[in-house]
Specification:
The complex is a heterodimer of chains A (408) and B (619).
Chain A: E1 8-9, E2 27-33, H1 50-53, H2 61-79, E3 86-93, H3 101-115, E4 117-127, H4 134-143, E5 147-153, H5 157-163, H6 169-182, E6 185-192, H7 199-211, E7 216-221, H8 229-235, H9 244-260, E8 264-267, E9 270-272, H10 280-286, E10 290-294, E11 299-302, E12 305-309, H11 313-321, E13 327-332, H12 335-346, E14 353-354, H13 355-360, H14 366-374, H15 380-384, E15 387-388, H16 392-396, H17 398-406
Parallel strand pairs in A: 2-3, 2-10, 3-4, 4-5, 5-6, 6-7
Antiparallel strand pairs in A: 1-13, 7-9, 8-9, 11-12, 12-13, 14-15
Helix pairs in contact in A: 2-3, 3-4, 4-6, 7-9
Chain B: E1 19-26, H1 32-42, H2 60-65, E2 73-80, E3 83-90, H3 99-107, E4 111-117, H4 124-135, E5 139-145, H5 154-165, E6 173-174, H6 183-193, E7 206-215, E8 219-228, E9 231-232, E10 236-239, E11 245-247, E12 250-254, E13 258-260, E14 263-264, E15 269-273, E16 287-290, E17 309-315, H7 321-334, E18 339-345, E19 349-356, H8 359-373, E20 377-379, E21 386-390, E22 395-398, E23 409-424, H9 428-437, E24 441-448, E25 452-460, H10 461-465, H11 468-475, E26 481-491, E27 494-501, E28 504-505, E29 511-514, H12 518-532, E30 540-546, E31 549-556, H13 571-587, E32 589-592, E33 595-598, H14 599-606, H15 609-613
Parallel strand pairs in B: 1-3, 1-4, 4-5, 5-6
Antiparallel strand pairs in B: 2-3, 7-8, 7-16, 8-15, 9-14, 10-11, 10-16, 12-13, 12-15, 17-19, 17-20, 18-19, 21-22, 21-23, 23-25, 23-26, 24-25, 27-28, 27-29, 27-30, 30-31, 32-33
The chains are: A alpha/beta (408), B alpha+beta (619).
C-alpha cells in the first residue's frame, strides 16, 4: 500500500505554523472515501474492503468527515488562515459511490455551510461504473455536484481481468450517458500498460472512451507499486513486467487519437475538450493552492504546511471522536523546497512555466535550456518566447527534464 | 585440572622459566577467536561482564567477518602444580593473504597450537602455516576444536593430524571453544610442552618487533618479543635498522587491555610506545635495543611483504580525493604491506594504484577506507604485474591494463603461482576442470587420509585473483581450501581487451587476458554493462575491442519514458523526496562522455556475482 511520506509528528491540536500567508490563495477540499467492494490487484491506494475493516462502520463514515470539517474550520481560524470560500470540492477514494448519495450530499452540504463556496465551483466525485444509476446521479446534480469521473480503466475484458476490475465494461458508456443527461460534466480514467495489453487493445479502449463523448479523459500508465498483488505476481513470474517502450508507444497513441478527437492535453496525463472542462480541482494541486484533505490518509496543504492524516479508518475514527487532530505527520515547506515543487509540478502543465521565473530562481541556466531544446524535450519556439513547454517527447521524459532544470 | 592463578607474575621480573609464548594456527573459520575468548575467560583476564564475542578482534570488520587481520599479543596467568606461569598468546591471521603476518607471529613464539575443526579436518591454509611453524622449530600441540558439533569426527581427524606431524592420535587434544570443554587441559599442555624462552638477561637488550599498530590516540604501538636483556620505561631506545633513537613513553603488556609496566625482560612479550606517528619508523622485523648499551648484531629480520595484486582505488566523489590520500597515509601507518601511488583514469578521475597481498587484503582495505573514513570508493578489477618486452627490446612493467603498450610486443611474462587445493575426493573432477580452464597444469595429487586429496597446480596468478576462489568454493560446496605461493614468471599469450561506451574507452574496464579468453571477456563485460547501465535518453553502444578490432557489442536502448503518471495531493511530498534521493544518487554517477554510469555499475562490473556470496561469517 502506498507509503505515507516521512515528516515530523503533527501536533494533536492540528494548529498550523503557516510558513507564509496564503489568504489570497484559493481554497479547495478533497474528501477521501476509503471503501471499495474488492481490492484491485494493482491498487495501492488507502482503501479497504468490508472484510478488511471488520466493524468500522461505513454507514457512519460521513459523520466523521462532518466532524473533521468542523475541526478544520476551528484550526484554520486559530492558525490565522482567514475565512475563505471553497473554489472546488473533490470526492475520491476508494469508491465514493459505494456510499449512498445522501452521505456524499450531507458532507458536501456541510462543507458549504461551514466554508461557503464560490459561484461556479467545480464539485466532482469519482464513481465506479457499476455503483451508480440515474437516480443517484440525479441526486448529486440536484445537490450541486457538477462533475463525475468514472474509473473505466479499459474497454478490454482481458485487461480488466488482469487489473482485477470487476465492473461491467458496458456500464461505463451507459452511466456516462446518464450523467450527461442529468447535466453533469464527465470524465473517464484509463490505465495503459497493463501486463498483456497490446497496442491494439489500448487503441480499443481509447476509441471506446472517445466514443462516449466525455468532456475529459485521464490516461495513466500502470505503475506496479511495491506491496501490491500485481507486484507479487510479476515477481513470481506469473505476469510479465510492463515494457517501457510499449508504454511510450501507448502514450503517443493516446496523444494522437485524443487530439484527433478534439481533446487537448493540459497536464502529462490529462486531456480536456476545452480549457473550461479541465479539472480545476486537480490544477489547484499543480499550482500549489491551499486544500484540506478530509478522511483517513488524506493529504492537505495550507500556507506551506503539508500534512497527512492517519491511514487506517479505525485510527482516524478514534482521533476524530476524541477531538484529536487526525493529522499524523507534517512538513513545513520552505521557500527552496517550494521552488523545487513548483518546477516539479508546473513543468507538467501544457501552459508551461515562465522562463524568467526559472532564471530568477536559479533553474534556467542557458546551457541547460539549450540542451533541452537540442534534445527535443522542450519547445524551442516557446522557450524563445519566454515559456518553458514540454514537447511530446519531453512529456514522456518529464521527470528527467525536471531533474535537469533543478540540476539534480 | 589447574585452578585459575590467584596471583600474576610481575612483568619485567618474570623468570623465563615460567614464561610460555605460543600462537594458534587455524583455518579461517575453525574457531580460533572463540577459543581465545574462552582462554581469556578461564584465565580470568577478562571478567564475564566485559566479555564480548571475539574479544581480541578489534576492528569492526574483524568481528563482523570473523577473521583476524592484525595480530595481537595477550598475557594470561595460569597455574600448574602450584607454580604460576605467564602465557603469551599471539594471535595470528588465518587467511592466505596474511602469511607475512603469520610468519612474524611465529618468530615470537616457541610453540604453536594447531587448531583444526573436528568436523572439517585440516585445510590448505593451515598446512601452509603449519609448514612455517615447523620451519621455525616450534613445538606443535595438535588440537581438535568444535567437538560439540554433531558432525564432528575427532577420531578420523586425530589420525590425519598424527599422520601429518607424527605422534599418536591420542596426543591430539579435544576442545570446544564454544562450551569451553578441554580448554583448561590445553592450557596445562601449553605449560608442560612448550619450551621456555631462552635468552641472555645480561646481554645488551634485543627485542624483535613483530607487529606495529597505529592507534589514533597513542600513536604507533609496537609489539615486541624480548630476546636478550631488558627494556625499561623512560629509557632511550634505538631502532637498529635506522639508528633512530626514541624515548620509551610507555612500556607494558596486553592483558588484554594495555597495562603499563616498569619494563620487559627476557622472553617476555609486550608493547612499546614512543610517540612515533608512522609505523614505518617502527618496522616489523627490526630489532630494538637500548641507546646506552646498544647491541651490535641485530636479530634475523623478515622479508618485506610484496604486493601480488594491484587495483585502482577511486573516490566516487572526485572532491574526496584529498581525504582518500590522507586515509591511505593513515592506513599505511598500521599496514606496512599496503603500497600505493597516484593514478588518473579517464573514467574515474583521480585515484591511487594500490598494491595488495591478495584479494581479501584488497577487500579489507577498501572496506576500512569506506567505513573508517566515510569514503565511497570504486576499486577497479584486480590486476597482476606483467613484464612486457617490446620488439625494440624495451622492457615495461605493467600493473595497470591502461599501461599496456600499444606497440609491437615480443613477449609478456606473467607471475605464476603454485596452488595447493585440499578437498574431499568427490570433488577432484570438478577441481581439475576448474584449474585446467584457468590455464593450470597439475604438479601432483596426493591422498590425505582416506577421503581427502591434495592437488597442486602451477597456474598464472592472474587466473586466481579474479574469482577463482569463489568458483572453487561453489564447485566443491565450500569444502575445498586453497593456498598458493609465488612461483616465478612465465611467458603468456596475452592481449588487452578494451571496453567502449558510445565509442569512448572506459579505462577502468580494460583487462589483460589470455588470447583464448578475450572474446569471452568481451561478451561477459558488454552483457553485464548492458544490464547495469540504466537507459539514457539516447542509445548507447557498448563494444569490446582488441586494439581497433571490435570483438563483441551490445547496446542500451534509449530511454523513452521517465515520468510519474499521477502527481496529486499525496504524491507531491513523496515525489519531492524521490527527487532529493535522485540528487544524492547523481553524486554517485560517473560521466563517460554523455553517458551516466552509476557507481554500482562499476562495482558490479568489476566484481563477480559469486564474490558476494563468498564472504565469511564469524565462527
Amino acid at each position: 500500500m502506498a507509503q505515507l511520506p516521512k515528516g515530523e509528528i503533527a501536533p494533536s491540536d492540528g494548529l498550523l505554523p503557516l510558513v507564509f500567508n496564503s489568504s489570497d490563495n484559493s481554497f479547495h477540499a478533497y474528501v477521501h472515501i476509503p471503501y471499495c467492494l474488492t481490492r484491485c490487484g494493482y491498487c495501492d491506494f488507502n482503501t479497504y474492503t468490508a472484510t478488511e475493516l471488520g466493524d468500522t462502520s461505513q454507514s457512519e463514515y460521513f459523520q466523521l468527515v462532518i466532524k473533521e470539517i468542523d475541526f478544520a474550520k476551528d484550526v484554520l481560524e486559530k492558525s490565522g488562515s482567514g475565512p475563505r470560500k471553497l473554489s472546488s470540492v473533490f470526492f475520491g477514494g476508494g469508491t465514493p459511490t459505494l456510499l449512498p448519495a445522501e452521505d456524499l450530499i450531507s458532507i458536501f452540504k456541510h462543507l458549504v455551510d461551514v466554508f461557503g463556496i464560490e459561484a461556479g465551483s467545480e464539485v466532482t466525485t469519482e464513481a465506479n461504473p457499476d455503483s451508480v444509476d440515474e437516480e443517484y446521479l440525479q441526486a448529486l446534480k440536484e445537490a450541486g455536484f457538477t462533475r463525475v469521473s468514472f474509473g473505466m480503466q479499459s474497454a478490454v475484458p482481458e485487461v480488466l481481468k488482469v487489473l482485477e476490475r470487476t465492473h461491467k465494461p458496458e456500464n461505463v458508456a451507459l452511466n456516462v450517458s446518464r450523467a450527461k443527461t442529468v447535466g453533469l460534466e464527465t470524465s473517464v480514467d484509463l490505465i495503459y500498460g497493463t501486463p498483456g495489453e497490446s497496442l491494439a487493445d489500448w487503441r480499443r479502449s481509447l476509441e471506446a472512451a472517445i466514443e462516449m463523448n466525455t468532456d475529459h479523459i485521464s490516461a495513466y500508465s500502470l505503475i506496479v507499486e511495491p506491496g501490491t498483488k500485481l507486484a507479487r505476481q510479476i515477481k513470481a513470474g506469473e505476469i510479465e513486467s510492463p515494457d517501457e517502450a510499449l508504454h511510450a508507444d501507448m502514450y503517443e497513441l493516446a496523444e494522437e487519437l485524443l487530439t484527433e478527437a478534439g481533446f487537448s492535453n493540459y497536464e502529462v496525463s490529462n486531456w480536456a475538450k476545452s480549457p473550461t472542462l479541465q479539472s480545476r480541482h486537480n490544477v489547484s494541486y499543480w499550482e500549489s493552492k491551499d486544500w484540506w484533505g478530509f478522511g483517513p490518509g488524506a493529504h492537505s496543504h495550507v500556507g506551506g504546511v503539508r500534512w497527512w492524516n492517519v491511514k487506517h479508518p479505525a485510527a482516524y475514527s478514534e482521533r476524530i471522536l476524541s477531538g484529536v487532530s487526525p493529522a499524523l505527520e507534517r512538513e513545513l515547506v520552505d521557500q527552496e523546497n517550494r521552488n523545487i515543487e513548483k518546477v516539479m509540478l508546473e513543468a507538467r502543465l501544457a501552459r508551461g512555466m515562465d522562463v524568467n521565473w526559472l532564471k530568477e530562481n536559479g533553474f534556467g541556466e542557458a546551457k541547460v535550456l539549450s540542451e533541452l531544446i537540442a534534445d527535443e524535450l522542450v519547445d524551442g519556439k516557446a522557450l524563445i518566447g519566454g515559456r518553458l513547454v514540454l514537447t511530446l517527447k519531453g512529456r514522456l521524459l518529464a521527470d528527467l527534464v525536471v531533474r535537469r532544470l533543478l540540476g539534480f | 585440572m589447574s585452578p585459575r592463578a590467584t596471583t600474576r607474575l610481575e612483568p619485567a621480573k618474570t623468570n623465563p622459566d615460567f614464561i610460555r609464548n605460543f600462537c594458534i594456527i587455524a583455518h579461517i573459520d575453525h574457531g580460533k577467536s572463540t577459543l581465545a575468548d574462552r582462554m581469556l575467560q578461564l584465565t580470568g583476564v577478562v571478567d564475564a561482564r566485559s566479555m564480548r564475542a571475539q574479544y581480541l578482534d578489534r576492528m569492526d570488520i574483524e568481528r563482523e567477518r570473523g577473521i583476524t587481520i592484525k595480530s595481537q599479543a595477550v598475557r594470561m596467568p595460569w597455574e600448574l602444580e602450584g607454580q604460576t606461569y605467564a602465557l603469551n598468546m599471539i594471535d595470528t591471521p588465518g587467511h592466505v593473504d596474511f602469511t607475512y603476518e603469520v610468519s612474524r607471529s611465529l618468530a615470537a613464539c616457541e610453540g604453536a597450537v594447531l587448531l583444526v575443526d573436528a568436523a572439517q579436518g585440516i585445510e590448505a591454509q593451515t598446512l601452509a602455516n603449519l609448514y612455517l611453524a615447523l620451519e621455525n622449530d616450534l613445538t606443535i600441540i595438535p588440537v581438535l576444536n568444535k567437538i560439540d558439533l554433531p558432525a564432528a569426527q575427532p577420531e578420523k581427524y586425530a589420525e590425519e593430524l598424527a599422520e601429518l606431524i607424527g605422534g599418536q592420535p591420542e596426543d591430539c587434544l579435544r576442545v570446544s571453544g564454544k562450551t569451553g570443554v578441554g580448554v583448561d587441559a590445553l592450557l596445562d599442555k601449553i605449560v608442560q610442552t612448550i619450551p621456555k624462552p631462552v635468552g641472555d638477561p645480561n646481554a645488551p637488550a634485543r627485542a624483535m618487533i613483530f607487529d606495529s599498530v597505529y592507534d589514533s590516540y597513542r600513536g604507533v604501538v609496537t609489539y615486541v618479543r624480548m630476546v636478550d636483556g631488558s627494556l625499561s620505561n623512560r629509557e632511550k631506545i634505538t631502532m637498529m635498522s635506522t639508528k633512530a633513537v626514541h624515548e620509551l613513553l610507555e612500556i607494558g603488556v596486553s592483558s588484554p587491555e594495555p597495562e603499563p609496566t616498569k619494563g620487559l625482560g627476557v622472553g617476555e612479550v609486550g608493547y612499546l610506545i614512543t610517540g612515533v606517528k608512522d609505523v614505518r619508523q617502527s618496522k616489523v622485523g627490526d630489532t630494538v635495543t637500548t641507546a646506552m648499551k646498544s647491541a651490535t648484531v641485530a636479530l634475523k629480520g623478515y622479508s618485506e611483504p610484496k604486493p601480488m595484486v594491484y587495483s585502482g582505488i577511486y573516490p566516487i566523489d572526485g572532491s574526496d580525493y584529498p581525504i582518500l590520500r590522507e586515509a591511505l597515509d593513515k592506513l599505511k601507518l598500521s599496514d606496512a604491506s599496503l603500497v600505493y601511488e597516484p593514478e588518473t583514469s579517464v573514467a574515474l578521475g583521480f585515484g591511487f594504484r594500490c598494491g595488495f597481498l591478495g584479494l581479501l587484503h584488497l577487500e579489507i582495505i577498501t572496506e576500512r577506507l569506506e567505513r573508517e573514513f566515510g569514503l565511497d570508493l570504486i576499486a577497479t578489477a584486480p590486476s597482476v604485474i606483467y613484464e612486457v618486452t617490446l620488439d625494440d627490446k624495451k622492457e615495461i612493467t605493467v600493473t595497470n591494463p591502461s599501461e599496456y603498450p600499444t606497440g609491437k610486443i615480443s613477449k609478456v611474462l606473467e607471475p605464476m603461482v603454485r596452488a595447493t587445493i585440499l578437498s574431499p575426493k568427490d570433488y577432484v573432477g570438478a577441481i581439475m576442470e576448474l584449474c585446467q580452464g584457468r590455464r593450470g597444469s597439475m604438479v601432483d595429487m596426493q591422498y590425505f587420509g582416506t577421503d581427502r586429496v591434495q592437488l597442486r597446480y602451477d597456474m598464472p596468478l592472474a587466473e586466481i585473483v579474479f574469482d577463482f576462489f569463489d568458483n572453487l568454493k561453489s564447485k566443491t560446496q565450500g569444502y575445498a581450501s586453497l593456498d598458493y605461493e609465488e612461483n616465478g614468471l612465465a611467458e603468456g599469450d596475452l592481449v588487452k581487451v578494451d571496453i567502449l561506451l558510445q565509442g569512448e574507452q572506459v579505462d577502468a574496464f580494460s583487462a589483460i587476458v589470455h588470447k583464448d579468453k578475450a572474446y569471452a571477456y568481451g561478451v561477459m563485460m558488454t552483457t553485464k554493462l548492458r544490464e547495469l547501465i540504466p537507459r539514457q535518453q539516447f542509445e548507447v553502444p557498448i563494444q569490446a575491442a582488441i586494439g581497433a578490432r571490435i570483438i563483441a557489442r551490445e547496446s542500451i536502448r534509449a530511454m523513452r519514458k521517465d515520468v510519474l503518471a499521477k502527481c496529486y495531493g499525496g504524491d507531491i511530498s513523496r515525489k519531492r523526496k524521490l527527487l532529493e534521493k535522485q540528487k544524492e544518487g547523481k553524486k554517485r554517477m560517473k560521466m563517460v562522455g554523455r553517458v551516466e554510469v552509476p557507481q554500482e555499475a562499476f562495482i558490479a562490473a568489476l566484481t563477480t556475482d559469486a564474490e558476494k556470496k563468498g564472504k565469511k561469517k564469524g565462527d
